[in-house]
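Progress narrative, work stream C.
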Amino acid sequence: MKTIICYATKTGTTETAAKELAGLLGAIKVCNLEKETPDIHNFDLVIIGGSIRMGKLHKAAKKFIDANTKELLSKKCAFFICNGFPEQAETFLIQNIGQELLSHSICAASLGGELDLSKLKGMDKFIAKAVTSSMKDNPQAVPKLLHESIKEFAKTVKAEQ
């Protein structure tokens, strides 16, 4: 089964998750949607991931999903997001991908997120500083990639390949 992972990232976290997922799934194509727009007609399984900022999916991922909804509904597909608040994943997924595609997908999940102030600028950095200062008493609350979630996502996808 020909599989592609398409992703869009702002600070590199989603790219890290996409590459880790690709490593678990084996030899598959990985595509950065900010650099290229793949033709998904040649793939049996399409996995799309994007970062979430302020509740919104990365523009490039959202644009790609919207442009390919009909094709995605005719294929096996899966979706992942990288965000700092995995407990809100279902809301973010429904708001940004839509119930129709999510119901059709083989899986959809948050793979966690990272908060690296050195990669942020402007308002994103300002907001992130406020968030991290509120977390200083609870280091467990600092967002991080959820490697176990990535493994579970890969396991679910492999069962469909």
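Work stream C, second folded protein:
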Amino acid sequence: MNNVSMSIKKALTNKNTVTIVGIIIALIVVYIGYNMRIRSMTDPYPVPYALDTLKPGTKITSDQVGTMNVPRAALKGTYIADASGVIGKYVSEDSIIPKGSLFYSRSVVEKGQLEGVKALDYPEGHVLVNFAVNMETSYANLLYPGEYMDLYLKIRYAGENVSQADENKLTVGKLLSDIKVLKVVDANGDNVFDDLDEKKTPAQVIFAVPEEYHILLRKAMYLRTYEAQIIPVPKRVTSSEAPDATISSSQLKDFINNVTVWTGEDAPITVPDNQ
């Protein structure tokens, strides 16, 4: 027994033996760590997925969410790992989540992040305007929420109260600049852009302008003798600061005010009988 103990003690004090034992232990640690890592990458991991195709703006309910096991190695991108991070949220308005797809953070938003919900969030002191459009005057849906447009005014002098010298004279000019489009709806009042796969025909563009410009715009709409037409024109704003609406033509402003009558802040809009 003493001989065995002496042999073990002698072996442990031998540098070569210690080195070999250290290498063996290191290899065992590496082997165990490697296998644990491989197992963690290949073992199934439960993640939520869509049971149905979810359209833009859809509220995600529990019956639309399933769970499937996916190897971690196959999980790419900023996926949502737990159903609680999905249920009760909404599909973003620029996304469609296909049936069987995982949920990704860019495609799932809170209700308040939807453009359709934020659409009527406009500055204090501004007034909403719903402006009639069609596929042609909306430039085939180029008037998009969050983008900007200018409003042009076309006037043609016509009618029995117009002098022969002015008959059929045409004036076109920019009336308002930098109008932010808040919402575009169809004839049923539904958001035109809530489903990108379904091509809806725009019927109204909703925007907001300061009260002063709102009155001016309403006056322009009622210039019947002058065959007035408001023409929206989309524009791309590259400034980091969103501009506010401005008057572009003081001449058009003066013209509208000269041929209309405003009887007070709270009074209805009136125009002369010959208008």
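The beta strands are 44-50, 65-71, 90-91, 108-109, 126-132, 148-156, 170-185, 204-210, 229-235, 246-247. No further action is required on this item.
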